[in-house]
Amino acid sequence: IAFFAPKHLAGQRVLVTAGPTFEAIDPVRGITNLSSGKMGFAIARAAQEAGADVTLVAGPVHLPTPRGVRRIDVQSAQNMLEAVAQQAPEATVFIATAAVADWRPASSAEHKIKKDGSGQVPQLAFVENPDILATVAQSERARAGQLFCVGFAAESENLLAHAQAKRARKGVPLLVGNIGPATFGQDDNALLLVDAHGHRELPRASKRQLAQQLIADIAQRLESSIP
Length: 227
Ligand code: C5P
Prior knowledge:
Blueprint: E1 13-18, E2 23-26, E3 29-31, H1 38-49, E4 53-58, E5 70-73, H2 77-87, E6 93-96, E7 103-105, E8 126-128, H3 132-137, H4 140-143, E9 148-154, H5 159-170, E10 174-178, E11 188-194, E12 199-206, H6 207-224
Parallel strand pairs: 1-4, 1-6, 4-5, 6-9, 9-10
Antiparallel strand pairs: 2-3, 7-8, 10-11, 11-12
Helix pairs in contact: 1-6
The chain binds cytidine-5'-monophosphate (C5P).
């Protein structure tokens, strides 16, 4: 039996970030995190199935591109911001699921850093990465209500309070909390949807099902145009 998802995002152009970023130390080393990209890829797939035109900006992950989705592969947070900044003017929905590295090495060596036999270790200095979601959320189109922005949060404690604070700090109408324990790499998850009016939980289910529920929720917000 074929399953046809309701086309409740027809006419929307959805931009999704997914996966970790990779911040180079030298040509063969870098700093990253354990994000698998599964949630973001599931969201891109669900949005495409719901009739949206979908662009997925992906950090280094090992996942197949969902059918019908335009994919742009990037490495660092700066690369991700460039790709997003290029695509955002065309988008009507931006969903930031990527686990963007908060910091990157202040400089990346041109050649592989070698052990010199003296037992000395390299000293790494860090600088802060740009906040991609906050940057997009502050754009004119987002503030004019032409680009609906959704953020994610992975917290180890006080999820509701942190998610509410993050929603306000990032300036987004909807912030989605990953309900722990650590969901990185897992096939299922539970989500906490936090908006200006309150919050509701999407109980534990596969990331595929949660993505479909989240897309349905976002579609409803777009229809009612009540953020
Ligand atoms: O501040 P924090 O990293 O916890 O916020 C998580 C949310 O912000 C996620 O939606 C993530 O994709 C986004 N983010 C971003 N750019 C960053 C850091 C986080 O877009 N540099």
